[in-house]
Design a protein that fits this description.
The structure is a single chain. The protein is α/β, with parallel strands linked by helices and 354 residues long. 29% of the residues lie in helices and 23% in strands. The protein has two domains: 3-128 and 319-344, Rossmann fold (3-Layer(aba) Sandwich), CATH 3.40.50; 131-315, Dihydrodipicolinate Reductase, domain 2, CATH 3.30.360. Helix 4 crosses helix 7 (256-265) and helix 4 crosses helix 8 (317-333). The chain is globular and about 55 Å long. The chain starts with a strand and ends in a 21-residue tail after the last helix. The structure holds adenosine-2'-5'-diphosphate. It is an enzyme of class 1 (oxidoreductase).
Length: 354
C-alpha cells in the first residue's frame, strides 16, 4: 500500500531534491502533490523520470486525506502551514528550524534516534540543520565507543544551504567577476565569490550565530543531552557539499583502530582515509551521494582522549532531502503513517514529551 504525499516548497533547492529522492528510493507513493507559493502555481516540476507535477498553491490547499507532507518552504511558512496539515492528520516532516526545539516534536536522524519518532505528539517531526545531520551520523559510532564529552567544530558550508537564491548569488558574482561587473550582495552579508563569510543566520547575544547555536542544541537533543558543542560556522564559495573539521574529547581512552572499524561499519558513513595525496574526500566529490564521508582521522594529542577528523556530505541530501525521506521511510517501517497511526491517538498523561 502506498501513501498520499505532499511536498511543500517543491520549486526550491531542497523541495526538488525531495521529489528526486522520493522517486529514486521508491518511497511507496499512491498520489503526490507539489506545493509552493501562489507565484509558482501552474509551473511544472518533475517527479522521477516520467511524471510531471503542476505546482499547486499552498495557501488554498486542503491537507485532508493526505498522509504525509515533507515541508521545506522556509521557517515562517512552515510555522503557519505545518500545524494546519497536522490538524488534518497529515503527518509533517519539516525541514526548517521552526519546530526543532519544540517539546513533543522529535528531531530525528534515523541512523541515530529513529525510536524518537514514536514520541511525535503534534503530528510534526523536525529534520535537523544540515550541518548537524552529517555530524550526527559520524559522531554516533564514536560516542557509542568512547562517550563524547565535548565537540569543537568548524564548518565550511555550501551556498545551497541558503536555498536557490544563495546558489544564484555565487553564480552571478563569479560570472560577473570575469566581465568586471561589481558584485551584487543580496542573500549574503558580503561578497561570497572568491571569499569566505564567518556568519550564518543571525547573531545572538553571546556573539555566536544562530547556526552555531543550532549545532549545539540539536546535537544535545538528538545524540546526548550532556555533550558540549562549540561551533564556528562559515559560508564558503562551494555550490553543494558541507565540510566540517571536527575535534572531539571523550570520557574513555580513544583507540584509532577501533574508531576506524566502528566508522567503517556505521550506517550512512564511508571512511576514506588514506594518508597520501588525494586520500580524502572533498565536497565536490560528495554531490548527489547519500553517505557522509569521514577522512583525516587522527588522534588529537592536545587534549585527553582527543580525536579529530574531516567530514563531508551533500547538504541537500543527508543535510535535508535524504534525511527527510529517511524519516518518512522510518515512519513507514514503524507503521506510524496514516489516519490510524498511533501518533493520532490521545497521549497518556504520564508520557514524557519527546
Ligand atoms: P516559490 O518558488 O513559489 O517562491 P528555496 O529555499 O530554494 O529558496 O525554496 C523555497 C521554497 O519555498 C520554494 O519552493 C518557494 O516557492 C517556497 N515558498 C516560499 N514562500 C512560500 C509561501 N508563502 N507559500 C508557499 N511556498 C513558499
Amino acid at each position: 500500500m502506498g501513501y498520499r504525499v505532499a511536498v511543500v516548497g517543491a520549486t526550491g533547492a531542497v523541495g526538488r531534491e525531495i521529489l528526486k529522492t522520493l522517486a529514486e528510493r521508491q518511497f511507496p507513493v499512491d498520489d503526490i502533490v507539489a506545493l509552493a507559493s501562489a507565484r509558482s502555481a501552474g509551473r511544472e516540476v518533475s517527479f522521477g523520470e516520467k511524471k510531471v507535477l503542476k505546482i499547486q498553491n499552498l495557501e488554498t490547499f486542503d491537507f485532508t486525506g493526505w498522509d504525509i507532507a515533507l515541508f521545506s518552504p522556509g521557517g515562517a511558512v512552515s510555522a503557519k502551514y505545518a500545524p494546519k496539515a497536522a490538524a488534518a492528520k497529515c503527518l509533517v516532516v519539516d525541514n526548517t528550524s521552526h519546530f526543532r526545539m519544540e517539546p513533543g516534536v522529535p528531531l530525528v536522524v534515523p541512523e541515530v534516534n529513529a525510536a524518537a519518532l514514536k514520541k511525535a505528539r503534534k503530528g510534526i517531526i523536525a529534520n535537523p540543520n544540515c550541518s548537524t545531520a552529517q555530524m550526527m551520523v559520524a559522531l554516533k559510532p564514536l560516542h557509542d565507543l568512547f562517550r563524547i564529552k565535548r565537540v569543537v567544530v568548524s564548518t565550511y558550508q555550501a551556498v545551497s544551504g541558503a536555498g536557490k537564491s544563495g546558489m544564484d548569488e555565487l553564480f552571478s558574482q563569479t560570472k560577473g567577476s570575469f566581465v568586471n561587473d561589481p558584485p551584487t550582495v543580496a542573500q549574503f552579508t558580503k561578497q561570497i565569490a572568491f571569499n569566505l563569510i564567518p556568519h550564518i543566520d543571525r547573531f545572538m547575544e553571546d556573539g555566536s550565530t544562530k547556526e552555531e547555536w543550532k549545532m549545539a542544541v540539536e546535537t544535545r537533543k538528538i545524540l546526548d543531552p550532556d555533550i558540549k558543542v562549540f561551533a564556528t560556522c562559515v559560508r564558503v564559495p562551494v555550490f553543494i557539499g558541507h565540510s566540517e573539521a571536527i575535534s572531539i574529547e571523550c570520557e574513555k581512552p580513544v583507540d584509532l583502530e577501533k574508531a576506524r572499524a566502528a566508522l567503517r561499519k556505521a550506517p550512512g558513513v564511508i571512511l576514506r582515509d588514506e594518508r597520501e595525496d588525494g586520500g580524502y574526500v572533498t565536497p565536490i566529490e560528495c554531490v548527489g551521494e547519500d553517505d557522509t564521508y569521514v577522512s583525516r582521522l587522527r588522534i588529537d594529542p592536545t587534549v585527553e582522549n582527543g580525536l579529530a577528523f574531516w567530514c563531508v556530505s551533500d547538504n541537500l541530501r543527508k543535510g535535508a532531502a535524504l534525511n527527510a525521506v529517511q524519516i518518512a521511510e522510518s515512519l513507514d517501517e514503524q507503521h506510524l503513517i496514516g489516519k490510524d497511526s498511533p501518533l493520532w491517538q490521545p497521549v497518556p498523561r504520564s508520557e514524557e514529551p519527546a
